[in-house]
Specification:
Length: 155
């Protein structure tokens, strides 16, 4: 069933009390427990991301490293993860992990998307780097810093 944006809704899980049967990370845990853990982790990482972006002027290298690490962790699921609703994103990830458990296969997110299983972030699959304008801003800032450093050392 498609939502208003033309994207498919996450799979309907049998019940929030159902448990993962096979999954190497979540085996024996309930869907509700895993969803709550994911939502909490996403919210925590969103706060850390925002703090890193705010502190970018003070310590560019450490901030960039933190931003890149967090982005690698979540951007496959949603390029706009830093602004996404943590509960909604956790629900999509839970649907993916439940499908991996059902298949008893640790398929990657992109394979899950390509299989036309319900996903809500079709734009993320096609946007690539062009969908990350902040990345270009960070790259431009780094290039400018390097130019300034070279000019200062040469002059």
């Amino acid at each position: 069933m498609a939502d208003q944006g033309g994207e498919q809704a996450p799979p309907v899980l049998a019940g929030e009390g159902d448990r993962f049967q096979w999954h190497p990370t979540y085996k024996g845990r309930t869907y509700a427990d895993v969803r709550q853990e994911l939502a909490t982790e996403i919210a925590r990482d969103q706060r850390a991301y925002n703090l890193a972006m705010e502190g970018a002027e003070a310590d560019e290298h450490d901030s960039l490293s933190s931003v890149i690490d967090l982005d690698r962790k979540w951007s496959d699921f949603d390029l706009g993860w830093a602004e996404a609703d943590p509960d909604e994103l956790a629900g999509r990830i839970l649907g993916f992990e439940a499908e991996r458990d059902r298949r008893r296969q640790l398929m990657p997110w992109r394979e899950y998307q390509a299989a036309d299983l319900p996903v809500t972030n079709r734009m993320a699959a096609s946007a690539g780097v062009a969908g990350m304008p902040w990345l270009w801003v960070i790259i431009a800032i780094i290039v400018l810093i390097i130019i300034v450093i070279v000019l200062v050392t040469v002059l």
